[in-house]
Amino acid sequence: MTGLRGEAAIIGIAELPAERRPTRPPLFTLDQYALLAKMVVEDAGVDPACVNGLLTHGVAESSMFAPATLCEYLGLALDFGERVDLGGATSAGMVWRAAAAVELGVCDAVLAVVPGSASVPQSQKNAPPAPNWYGASSNTYGSPQAEFEIPYGHVGQNAPYAQIAQRYAAEFGYDPAAVAKIAVDQRANACGHPGAVFHGTPITVEDVLTSPMIADPIHMLETVMRVHGGVGVLVANAEIARRARHRPVWITGFGEHIAFKTPTYAEDLLCTPIARAADKAFAMAGLSRSDVDVASIYDCYTITVLMSLEDAGFCAKGQGMSWVTDHDLTYRGDFPLNTAGGQLSFGQAGMAGGMHHVVDGARQIMGRAGDAQVRDCHTAFVTGNGGIMSEQVALLMRGD
Amino acid sequence: MSAEPRPVPEPTPVSRPFWDGLAQHRILVQYSPSLQRYVFYPRTLAPGSLADDLEWREIDGAGTLYTFTVARRPTGPPWADALPQLLAVVQWDAGPRISTELVQIDPSDIRIGMRVRPVFYDLPETGITLLKYRPE
User: Fold this and answer.
1) ipTM reported for the complex, 2 dp
2) Of A146, A173, A277, B136, which is most buried with the most CB atoms under 10 A?
3) Nearest chain B CA: its distance from A270 CA (Å)
């Protein structure tokens, strides 16, 4: 089949430690981007002048022309610049776009950087923008959400994910303790990763089930903690990768599928887009599920992980709860998952949360995961998830 | 501190017949003869085929509960004094699904698959009627 040949690699990674309250001085997202770009280039050990591609989710200081603004600010002329708008799937979407651009020869090295701190300098002249509780919904006139969702209180992330979980429960049953175990195992992983916001604070299934109910059946400890951070990677061609400092993490397969915006309008709410995306990624990479040494699965909620494990083909549909119960998801276990804690236990640095999973997989293949290192780790499966399980990306990455 | 005002939908040139229908306690939904199915929410062209044949038809709005949640924390400041929110997705017998809110039911009695009927919920002084649901 057509697709990537595995000739582009992640060669540099950076992830700021998660902070509930910022200790770093406030930085504009432009400056956050620049800082993370410097970190990934230095991590790779290459000359910044080799960078001629750039991906961004956008910068808060410029609502338009984000790639050109960043190009000018960084002083790096670009042969490829793109803004990616896929919510939590943005980061994984950036990585395959970068790899495709490199393999096509469009450019040589691509920044895929996502600032993740809401602590930005405030103008003395202009009032700060009003807090926006619409989140991923649009309350702009003419938007379907403004007209048909928000007036009924269908807004935010908790309720629609809970609705998916309820539908899942009606079809397949629901074992709250099994689902909670996902959060518990990931917390154990966070305890092996010093940058995680919950490093040093293990939890039990009992803790999860006695934490406050947010929207039935989702408990507080099954939701993410917003943190300040920022994450990025540098993707480069084989020639640069061979000169770089670390073991290259080749991007060998991907799939992307966008199915809807609001779950109400999903054709089948229980068949998530990752099913198609993962099938394409595995076929492209010529790998099977059993080849995966580490998985980093987008985890805005425990239900997202459960359904992604099923739909990406690691276990049968409806069997996820017993599968999770039967497997050890920690970095020491038989199915290492979200080995840096995932967003549930590392923390979610806003839009950078998606890149946490990319870096988690790359860090393991590079052999740089410290106490949480998975032995003989050569193949990583990574997902991104945007909206309400409405747009998802799968990546397969391999070491030599 | 009192809650923020609830957001009120603003009909558009595309959706106006739907809201005008609700104001008369009737449910008007678009139908595509070439697709032979109803379409929701209102559009100018049929989804999938992009056929230019959408026409407004009246349905009775009866349906079954497709899914729901009981939100114990407000989904936004306007609902701070409206807990718990019974946020539901109803599948019309006519086909499409709609986001709505359940009323006249105890949260512990809600079951996916239960039969539900429309409740026309007039918002005073706005001319807008929301479409909520209660058990049959």
Assistant:
1) 0.97
2) A277
3) 11
